[in-house]
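job 3f2a | input accepted
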Amino acid sequence: MTTRLEMKNMTKMYGNFIANDSISLSLKAGEVHAVVGENGAGKTTLMRMLYGMEQPTSGEIFIDGKRVNFANPNDAIKNRIGMVHQHFMLFPDFTAAENIVIGHEPRQAGFFNRKQATKLVQELVEKYQIPVRPNAKTADCSVGEQQRIEILKVLYQGADIIILDEPSAVLTPIEVKGLLKTIRQLADQGKSIILITHKLREVMEVADHMTVLRNGKVTGTVSKEQTSVDELAKLMVGRELHDLTERVQMNGDAILEIKNVTVQEKGNKPLLDDISLTVNRGEIVGIAGVSGNGQSELLQVISGLRSVKKGTIHVDGKDMTNQSVLSIRQAGLSHIPEDRYLWGAAKQATVEETALMGYHKKPQYRSYSFLRKAPFRKLVNGWIEKFEIKAGSLEEKAGNLSGGNLQKLIVARELGQEMPILIAAEPTRGVDIGAMEYIHEALIEKRNKGEAVLLVSSELSEIMSLSDRILVMYEGKIVGEVNRQNATEEAISVLMAGGNHHESKK
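job 3f2a | predicted structure (506 res):
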């Protein structure tokens, strides 16, 4: 296979900070090359330089042996490079065909030729075997189909090199399988794919070669045959990962009870439709589902961030329906929120102030009306060391931390509350593998102490590895329950897509 792309000694500096340190990468025609690494390893910066969104401090890019310089993404597109971003850039009221041809529309007598656009897109669908309905309005398409529209858009623009940025982040497991099949088909037809991801099992399934980054440097470039998931993880983290602690057999009573809860906004279908569930002491209950099926609203009503129209919520035997956030926390509930910026922190607060949230009323950190900062700072510094939180000082603004480091601070704060119930929503979103391992271990330890965890995660592997029971939500309802022993990816995937138990057992 001929070499299509070479990036040689790519370095990017922001002041004295080295984001990319002399990184080299080559890509052949018909190859899938994964770029993997922890949060902040330099993956995105490297791809932004390739796509003309950033200018390298030093280094060279060659396309088909010719040195190139990209001032902006248009230059990259002219050199047959396309990028599918993690957050789609589609117009919801346009059809699939209109979104695909936008900027390069076929015209007749100066006017947009919609019929020709549909024909061209249908030809692409057939050529690359990527299932998309050209005349479907994008707003009516599933997330998986919207992603396929984005892929067809870069193919329509003539891309031979396609960068996919965390492409499976918002997909159901069934859609992920379809995506991996599409990637492989594109490679078999001669396209070159760069896959940016942290999901190592997907990497091993679809990639031919992998470049691993850590702290802005290459720690290894390996072929699929030369490596394994464990070896890739070691290259990413710099050490061996450990197995999770064994779970102790627990038979606790119910500590969190939700009965017949309904949340409905005026004139719309219910966001939560007669939801009932219990979480017992010594149990992790996982909630699986495609984002937007009521998980967020459920956590908001439990934690006091949203009121309930009908139904009841009991925390440790106390009726906490429609009570204040403070009252619910004092009843025994801590909460790792899914949106760290909206619910978990104040960007203008310092690291110390962010860590203090929820602790300022605890007697061991108060003396009359004053805060006792010395013992609290000792606690926070312990969290920073344990979770390897990268912060300049306790006085640094929380908004200046990377997303992953802020997430680690919030997780440490909520675990440190030592409440009998923890709501953990996307607890490892944006954190590196090493911190993920520690968070998973902490959740198991909390369970083994006889406390309760309600876990919501878009990572099905996380749900399956941690949960004692798994509830699946679809369109505001709980559509199925699977225990740990019977949980399979296939069974849960069918439920997530709106199927039923019978279908999941086929």
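job 3f2a | The chain has two domains: 3-237, 254-504.
job 3f2a | closed
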